[in-house]
Amino acid sequence: MHNARCTINQLVPILEAKDLEVERGGVLILSIPFLSIQQGETLSLIGPNGAGKTTLLQTLSYLLKPFQGEILFRGEVVNSNCPVFEYRRKLAMVFQEPLLFDTTVFNNVASGLKIRRMKKEEVRHIVEENLDRFGISHLSHRSARTLSTGEAQRTSLARAFAIQPEILLLDEPFASLDPPSRESLIEDLERILRRTRTTTIFATHDRLEALRLSDRMAVMNRGKILQIGPPEEVMNQPVDEFVASFVGVETVLTGKVVRSDGGTFSVSISGQEVEAIGDALLEEVVTLCIRPENVTLSSPSSHEITSARNVFLGRVVRITPLGFYHKVQLQCGFPLVAYVTNQSLRNLSLTEGKEVKASFKATAIHVVRRQGR
Amino acid sequence: MDLILEGIKKALWLLLTLDPEVRGVTLLSIKVSGTATLISLLIGISIGTIVALSEFRGKRFFVSLINTGMGLPPVVVGLFVTIFLWRNGPLGFFGILYTPIAMILAQAIIATPIVMGITLAAIQQLPKRLQLQILSLGATRLQMVWILIKEAKLPLLAAVMAGFGGVISEVGASMMVGGNIKGYSRVLTTATVMETSRGNFDMAIALGIILLLLAYIINLILTQIQQRERPR
How far B227 CA lies from chain A's nearest CA (Å)? Predict the structure, then answer.
């Protein structure tokens, strides 16, 4: 089974959707002209509540009917000729709520396998493996009702992975977790996804989560995909105001770590070095997020001494008024966005094309480690 | 006061010596009400689940009918079952009026809406997304229904208790369709009514105690199961 999978033509997308439309009460709540997902990739769907992320996930898994359009699995149309549960058995879905069954953790993780009438011995083996994977082996015999939210969501994910799905669909799986358990679960999931290379579609409204876990990002609003592409591209070059306001807030830079010494490290971004704090391995690829309000602009001739570790000379590309302040897009060899008050804009007499000095502190950078991607 | 004390004393005697008549009446009560409850579970749980899971026009009306049925007066059920089973009635050719079968039938009619109503509520109060979760685990529709019923097992135990409790203590219908025939269709409740009207309070009290004990034991067992499953 596993070997056969590898020989399948990699060019055929594992999942495709064509002219997907869902209507509820006469209102079009989902409209996806085309969507294609490659074997092994992680696609994140990002958007506000009601953007259609859940609807898209549920339609792709044939849980939501009726809909218009076609869904193709490995190039073949999924339709009602064959029982739809056979298609669903290739997928696994994890919801925002753990939705566990009223039984032990072990039986919960085994439930998908029992539904497939797998032999007991085999079930035990797979369940134990997945309990271990998510660090919940010690909870095996506990009743699912006694679990904390974090433990419950781990159980739910283990249940999905136990099926060994060809596509994993995650519907905001971390949204109801508190920050520490959220962080540790994301870390584990990242590690597991990296190892299994399971094709994953993942809905979230957290852009950093999406940036961290996905190969491609699709920004959704009102049932439509507004932009789809690699996270850096979507976040740095949003196609419209909505995408910009939702994911395009920070400057997102990806590069290799060229120097690292206990506590600070430097990342090479288009030939320039950006300094950030934290631990990172040499040669590791990391992504840096810089919020525009943390970027200070000054006149290129000023010799003010600053505590900011990162000072770059750049050129103003575009100035956009945003009410009480302006958004200034710079080119410093890499793109950088800064917010300045209307007053500072006047004092520095900034205009498009002018040279300016941009600085930001190493501590103002949010570092996302994306090892192995 | 004497009457009561004397009654209780004699009643205990009847119980301790396992009086054959008392024993026979008790066993028949358990048999009739147990069978009726089983039938009502089969019908009530399946229809209750189907109604809970499906959307159709007039669902609200149907649900309100079921809920009304939960309080069906046993005498009314007795009346209609009698009419149907009457010699010239639509089902008269079965010839089962004044038999335990007729009593089972009447009691099943009383218990079914109770079980159905509780099942309906139990399945409906499960999170809607649970169905999607089960389907996304690869379940067929039938497997999904079975898992949902298992998820609702605690409220369903309540349905068993309510159904059995409803029919074991019911007297009107049993009297009307069973006829309270000695050694044949006489159950605890009908016997109690008869003995009381005859002034045989000792016997009536003995039967009453058994009825209470029976209801208590059954509920004790089911409550044990239910509470064992509660979260710690």
Answer: 14
Q: What count of CB pairs under 8 Å joins A to B?
A: 56
pLDDT in the model for residue A2? 43
Among B134, B136, B154, B156, pick the best mutation site for testing chain A contact (most A Cβ within 10 A).
B136
**Sequence-separated (6 or more) residues with CB below 8 Å from residue A277:** A263, A264, A265, A362, A363, A365, A367
The H-assigned helical ranges of A280-363 are: 342-347
- The tally of CA atoms less than 13 A away on the side-chain side of residue A37 is 28
Q: State which residues form the domain around B24.
A: 2-228
For B119-171, what is each residue's pLDDT tens digit?
Answer: 999 999 999 999 999 999 999 999 999 999 999 988 898 899 899 999 999 99
| Domain end point (choices A248, A278, A313) | A248
CATH code assigned at A240: 3.40.50.300
Inside any domain, residue A182: yes
CATH code (residue A302)? 2.40.50.100
CB contact under 8 A, B136 and A91: yes
Q: Which domain holds residue A262?
A: 252-369
Residue A299 lies in a domain: yes
Interchain pair B138, A115: CB under 8 A = yes
Supply the CATH number for residue B171's domain.
Answer: 1.10.3720.10
Residues of chain B whose beta carbon is less than 8 angstroms from a beta carbon of chain A are: 127, 129-130, 132-133, 135-141, 143, 147, 150-151, 153-154, 229, 231-232
Q: Looking at the structure, do residues A341 and A271 belong to the same domain, yes or no? A: yes
Same domain assignment for residues A268 and A236: no
Residue whose pair of structure tokens reads 């009297």 in the numeric block: B175
Three-state DSSP class for residue B198: helix
Pair A276, A350 in one domain: yes
Specify the higher pLDDT residue, A315 or A212: A315
* Chain A contact set for B232 (CB, 8 A): 143, 146
ipTM of the predicted structure? 0.81
Contact B6, B202 (CB under 8 A): yes
Tokens of A97: 């709520």
Q: Please identify, among A248, A273, A301, the residue that sits at the C-terminal boundary of a domain.
A: A248
A50 sits in the region (left: phi over 0; alpha: psi -120 to 50; else beta) called: left
Domain count, chain A: 2
A111 touches B: beta carbon within 8 Å = yes
Q: Would you state the pLDDT for residue A66?
A: 77
Question: Six-digit token pair at A94?
Answer: 């994890």
Averaged pLDDT, A83-99: 92
Are B137 and A95 a contacting pair at CB < 8 A? no
Q: Confirm whether A173 is domain-assigned.
A: yes
Q: What is the pLDDT of residue A112?
A: 95
Tens-digit pLDDT profile for residues A282-315: 888 888 889 898 999 998 887 777 778 899 999 9
